[in-house]
Each structure stands twice: as structure tokens, then as C-alpha cells.
Specification:
three-stranded antiparallel sheet; two-stranded antiparallel ribbon; elongated
Length: 135
């Protein structure tokens, strides 16, 4: 009977360690997706600027980055991003902020806890701690 309890205890410890490791892997995968999404948006914004000579306004691209990125400055209207990427976790957003020198796009990573000073003025649904800017 004691042997059975020892085996069950060992199995419980192994299962809990596996679950913890799996959670870390999921968070890292979602963070990788966020970084890839921001690079996709950055590429679309670069194409937009090359055609229109300016970056889109926040209203044109929406602060939650949830629309299609097109340019109305030329005809026919090109589509740079068919469907804007969204954060893998609901309630979180990618935030686009246009400035005089360019733009920045902010996101909230799960595996980083330090806030990004470039994103201190915006909220991604939680603390923004990762950003990309114009190249």
C-alpha cells in the first residue's frame, strides 16, 4: 500500500512539473506570434509610406490595429495587409501611435515584465512592454 502511495506521489509531481513547463512554452509561443505580427504590420506600414510619403494616421489604421491596411492616396487602392493581425489573447491589443518622426507599435508580452518606456503612454489591455518603431 505504501509503495502505491509513493508511486502516485511521484506521478503527481511529474505531472505538475510537466504542466508548468507546458504553460511556459505556450506563453513563449504567443510572444513569438506577437513579435511576428508586429513585424508584419511594420512591413505593411513601410509599403504604405513608400506609396503615400507619410505613415497612416491613427484613425486610418485604428489604435487597436483591427482593420485592413489600405492606401487611399493612390488609385487603384492597394491592400498592404489583408487582415490586420490581432493579439492571440483576447482583451489585449496592438497599439499604433504615429509621431512626427514616424510611428511605434506596442504590444504586451507575457514573458517580459519590464515596461517599455516607448509605450508608457498607451495601454494594450495590460502593461505594454514591447514595441517596434519605424526603421
Amino acid at each position: 500500500m505504501i509503495e502505491l502511495l509513493v508511486v502516485i506521489s511521484i506521478m503527481a509531481v511529474l505531472i505538475s512539473l510537466s504542466a508548468f513547463g507546458l504553460q511556459q512554452a505556450r506563453e513563449s509561443a504567443r510572444d513569438g506570434q506577437r513579435k511576428a505580427d508586429l513585424e508584419t504590420i511594420r512591413t505593411g506600414l513601410s509599403f504604405y509610406k513608400s506609396d503615400c510619403n507619410v505613415y497612416p494616421t491613427e484613425a486610418a489604421s485604428t489604435t487597436k490595429m483591427g482593420t485592413v491596411l489600405t492606401a487611399s492616396c493612390i488609385t487603384p487602392t492597394p491592400v498592404y495587409i489583408e487582415k490586420m493581425p490581432t493579439d492571440p489573447v483576447s482583451g489585449r491589443n496592438y497599439i499604433y501611435v504615429r509621431s512626427t518622426s514616424g510611428y511605434r507599435i506596442c504590444a504586451s508580452l507575457e514573458t517580459e515584465v519590464d515596461a517599455d518606456s516607448n509605450c508608457s503612454t498607451v495601454s494594450c489591455g495590460t502593461t505594454c512592454n514591447y514595441s517596434v518603431t519605424n526603421p
